[in-house]
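User: For a benchmark we're assembling, each entry needs the component sequences followed by a predicted structure for the full assembly. Here are entry 17's components. Please fill in the structure.
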Amino acid sequence: MEGNIAEMGQFIGAGLACLGMGFAGIGVGNVAGNFLSGALRNPAAAGEQTATLFIGLAFAEALGIFSFLVALLLMFAV
Amino acid sequence: MATTEGSGSGLNIHPMDQFQVSPLFGGTEVHWYTPTNAALWMLAAVGAVALLMVMGSRGRALVPSRGQTAAEVTYGFVRKMVEDVAGREGMKYFPYIFTLFLFVLATNMLALIPASFSPTSHIAVTAVMSLVVFVTVTVIGFVKHGAGFLKLFWVASAPTLALRIVLALIELISYFVRPLSHSIRLAGNIMAGHTVLKVFAGFAGVLGAGAVVPILAITAIYGLEVLVAVIQAYVFTILTVVYLNDALHPGH
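Assistant: Structure for entry 17:
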């Protein structure tokens, strides 16, 4: 077991950054699940709200992508 | 890949190599005028869009052919999106938005051809598109409403003055973060998807003949990636329309 401590920190940091993607997954699931429960209560109004659904999904997902980016930067750019 | 190369043992896969921009005709130096694989695949996307729309609108048949149907459905889809979100005034900017949608969609789909290149996985490409959207939308807002555009940042319905100032700050920051999140969302999604495909391809390469599970996984993920390609084109476009709507109708 040898290697420099900076590299170790890089890998640990990248792994920790991946936790953010998991939390973004919770957020995306929350958006989709709430949309589904609303849509099942009032299916007639659901069709008009798909654009809102996708905007919400995109905003929730963007934060997960940011943490993915941090992980990539730590692995390949630092 | 600072220190990880040359380890020799274990999995020897380089999932990020597919995003390397390289000159088409030999050599390794990339100048601004060098024809690269990124430029090639962007041109291919433009060609695909032109093919779809020109061939689709050539016949103008009452009973549309398959190509015409595809072109009409795409047109109607984006048109409805613009009308729903930005209203009738937004239709003035429909050609620009339709162009954006088709370009992102075509690049994403062409990138799914094996051994091709995905320009939209590069933040350089998506950042230019989102910065142009940002500048265009801001200019439209100021031209249409003058200083009234600043009402976008002033939440007049908030109860106290202190709260309005805090909200104005937050709105201002979120306005200027828009091009960042707009570009990284598209680039990150496409890059992540293609990296996952390549990582699984690396597993299949290691396992050799027994690579049934990775190949099945690649097939499934590829299906997901087709979905992601379309959804991300849709999301990129609809966020453009939302930003445009903010410029056309500022205020809360």
